[in-house]
Amino acid sequence: MGSEIIYTSLLQSKKDKIKKLAVLIDPDRMRLDRLEHVIENAVIANADYFFLGGSLIIDNKMEFCIEAIRAATKKPIVLFPSSPTQIHSKADAILFLSLISGRNPDYLISQHVIAAPMLRKTNLEVLPTGYMLIDGGTQTTASYISNTTPLPAHKDEIALCTAMAGEYLGLKLLYLDAGSGAKNAVPTSMIEMINLNVKIPIIVGGGIRTPNQACESAKSGADVIVVGNIFEKYPELVIEMTSAIHSLNKIMVNS
Ligand code: 1GP
Questions:
Q1: Measured in angstroms, how far is the CA atom of residue 90 from the centroid of ligand 1?
Q2: Candidates 132, 180, 223, 230: which one to mutate for ligand 1, based on the most atoms within 8 Å of Cβ?
Q3: Span from the CA of 247 to the centroid of ligand 1 (angstroms)
Q4: Which of 225, 226, 234 to mutate to test the pocket of ligand 1 (most atoms within 8 A of CB)?
Q5: How sure is the predictor about 80, in pLDDT bands with cuts at 50, 70 and 90?
Q6: 106: helix, coil or strand?
Q7: Which end of the chain, N or C, is more open, meaning fewer C-beta atoms within 10 Å of its C-beta?
Q8: How far is it, in rounded angstroms, from Cα 87 to Cα 62?
Q9: How far from 88 is each of 79, 99, 181, CA to CA, in Å?
Q10: Ligand 1: centre distance to CA 67 (Å)
Q11: How far is the CA of 87 from the centre of ligand 1 (A)?
Q12: What does the pLDDT read at residue 29?
């Protein structure tokens, strides 16, 4: 079984109001020439985490991506899997996702039963995570593949009750996701309401395209901001986005 190094640091950052940026790499979608730039810029900007995963695995380049990141930085590599086929022992941790916004038992427990013995054979830090898909204004691959309906974006109270239930079930993190390439990011009012009422760290992603959006999510209570899609198009944005979050930390810590 793995350690709790990443979770302990997430809890500490939450306590200190330090916000973090995770660069999401979908090994299947990322063009190799872009991957190099994304990693290079993430190293320059000192981005906090690399999340690795995608809804579909067509041409599995997971190992290649892990090795490319490892060669460039010691920052944690966290798997963000859509199925047990994406478990890779060379990463540092895995988001063990239970899709609590949905009602599909496959993504609430079945995939986990298959994954459990595989995880036992690794040293991955397992991070039990309540995964909540939020309607981002367009159908996303995650919602289609999981065969679940996302939470309505204007129903903050349903999202809050779901988040509270996840916390009571003992999940250690919440991930509010509008889905990759979402038209609309997770509403800040929803993040704010959840942050005021649950204590576990909150990850937010999906449809974040500008440093301003990333900062607004962080100010509303997101502890980790995940950005992927836009970095595939504009790798240089990694620097701007990470600096925006890190400068926000200076303001928040001094306030
Ligand atoms: C998707 O939260 C992630 O699962 C990131 O979304 O690719 O839209 O940045 P984007």
A1: 23
A2: 180
A3: 22
A4: 226
A5: very high
A6: helix
A7: C
A8: 9
A9: 8, 21, 25
A10: 22
A11: 19
A12: 83
Decide: 45 and 239 in contact? Cβ < 8 Å.
Answer: yes
**106 burial type by CB count under 10 A (0-12 exposed, 13-18 middle, 19+ buried):** middle
* Torsion (CA) 237, 59, 55, 1 in degrees, nearest 10: -90
Residue keyed to tokens 């054979």? 121
CA distances to 147, 207, 241 from 231, rounded to whole Å, are 27, 11, 10
Mean pLDDT confidence for 192-219: 98
Rounded CA-CA distance 105/91 in Å is 27
Q: Which of 24, 131, 203 to mutate to test the pocket of ligand 1 (most atoms within 8 A of CB)?
A: 24
pLDDT band at 255 (very low <50, low <70, confident <90, very high): low
Buried b (16+ CB within 10 A) or exposed e, 149-183: ebbebeebeebbebbeebbeeebbbbbbbbbbbbe
